[in-house]
Amino acid sequence: MEERLHLDPQKINRGREAARKIAEGVDQFIAPLTTVAVERTVARLFGIDGIDDEYVPLPNRVVDHLLEKGGLGRGVAPWLIQAMMHEEQDAQTIAERVAQGELDLTKVPTRSDEEISRFGKQIADQQLDRIAQNRKKRDEYLATLGEGKKPYLYVIVATGDIYEDAVQARSAARQGADIIAVIRSTGQSLIDYVPYGATREGFGGTYATQENFRIMRQALDEVGEEEGRYIRLCNYCSGLCMPEIAVMGALERLDVMLNDALYGILFRDINMQRTLIDQAFSRMINSYAGIIINTGEDNYLTTADAVEAAHTVLASQFINEQIALLSGLPEEQMGLGHAFEMSPELEDGFLLELAQAQMARQIFPDAPLKYMPPTKHMTGNIFKGHIQDTLFNLISVMTGQGIQLLGMMTEAMHTPHIHDRQLAIENAQYVFNNARNLGQEIQFRPGGKIEKRAQEVLDEAVQLLEDVQETGFFEAIHRGTFADVKRALDGGKGLVGVIRKSVDYYNPMEQELRKRLQLPSREEVSHGYRSY
């Protein structure tokens, strides 16, 4: 499989090296910065949860309090630790008192750095050990129940009501689904807080809350035991609350998270500084929790042409890979995204799609690639749409994709009904079963259309990455290099939540994660990659 398209390994290495340098530049840029979302995540890991009388989440109350007092540059952890030690109360009680206006964290007597560090490490160890236990529980399920064959059959539920989602998820699992993704309510990525509790209303999806995660995890565990295979749960930790949702997923044993370094910048106009800081911490959490991330390169082809912009997908995959590695995320947890989006009217479009999928498989051999179905060219003709999905399924099994988000014949018409999902699963099962080993039985003609197409896309991607390395990553985004979307360094939503760290900044959660993931400290990153 590795050499079937005769791709030049030196060009692949050039692309990866350029992406590595781009990623290191990004990592150095964000090293002296934090965000309100990162600090709220730390607060949640200290045990703070719930809402106040005005339905504002308590992590927001604590972080906003410190932001108003000018103390957030130090991080939320030192202030919480000092208050917990002085008041002899847990973090939840401290947060409730802050929300009620009874306690000013910046006026609590200070403690020495040694005392703060010792206390912070204890809290971090307790919570990270809890996440490690969840990972162990998943491994036990996989060892005893097993799982479906790859490509995993990935389907969505999106009713807005978490209890109805659970009913539909059980149904999908019984029909053969391996991954259930709960689509988030429209616009949640743009709200700078995480809703609380079980929710029964949502437009276009269901709110991502920790209680909703718990409810769905329980439902899938129950049906998984009935079916005799582990069912994975997916949600979204993109948007303005990326690291918060990542840690909620880690605490409730989610298995897959949408977690892209560029998606929020390009498609939700979230400030690029904010996104890049938040994704780094969220990916450390996902890495440690054993959660597979999905990236969003497939979305590029909804705004740009699949033929002309194919190389931008590959370039972004290289960048996402290298940025993820800097957060300790192994290749086995990188569901790098791409999509079946060639126009059905294009002659030999199937060959071009096959070239793209096989190329990605060879360049990222250890990644469980996430392959997205045709959406851009679905017309409402359900019979034609079902055929498009069949061709999509055939390429997936031929090229050994890892995660197959199943296409629905009613795509772009309405949220799928249960029977739409069942037909999609039956389609994929039929194709996968009948063509399971087709990829091992065929060869691509040397110098043929498929091989030439893959080589051309690789050439263009390498050139693009080297150009981005030369001009700068932020400038490349500003110019609209990816998805034909232009964004500015100081534009977009959430910039006000980016905070420069003070000299005494302390984040025990990141510090301990870095140790456990065997990553360099933030101080080492700030001084440049040559120092280690």
TrEMBL record:
The alphabetized UniProt keywords are: Isomerase
Q: Does the keyword Isomerase apply?
A: yes
The EC number(s) this enzyme carries: 5.4.3.3
One annotated GO molecular function is: cobalamin binding
Indicate yes or no for the key word Protein biosynthesis.
no
Residue ranges of domain D-Lysine 5,6-aminomutase alpha subunit in the record: 5-510
Pfam families associated with the record? Lys-AminoMut_A
User: Which Gene3D superfamilies does its entry note?
Assistant: D-Lysine 5,6-aminomutase alpha subunit
Main EC class of this protein? isomerase
Q: What is this protein called?
A: Beta-lysine 5,6-aminomutase alpha subunit
User: Which species is listed as the source?
Assistant: Croceifilum oryzae
